[in-house]
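Subject: Sanity check before I submit

Could someone independently write out the structure tokens for this chain? I want to compare against mine line by line before I put it in a report. The sequence has 49 residues.
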Amino acid sequence: MKVTSVKPEIMKQDIVDILKRLPPIKPAMNNNKPVITQFRLPIKIILAD
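---
Independent answer below. Compare away.
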């Protein structure tokens, strides 16, 4: 998924819209203790010249 925009403010809004569409991230449970898992969004920001 690539977010491309000439105007940074529009690009940021696009990312916000994408994040809103993603399902909520729930922490994995291990022995009733929350486990922190590193999570990287599949979003690459491409700035057009």
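---
OP: Matches mine. For the report I'm noting this point. The chain has one domain: 2-47.
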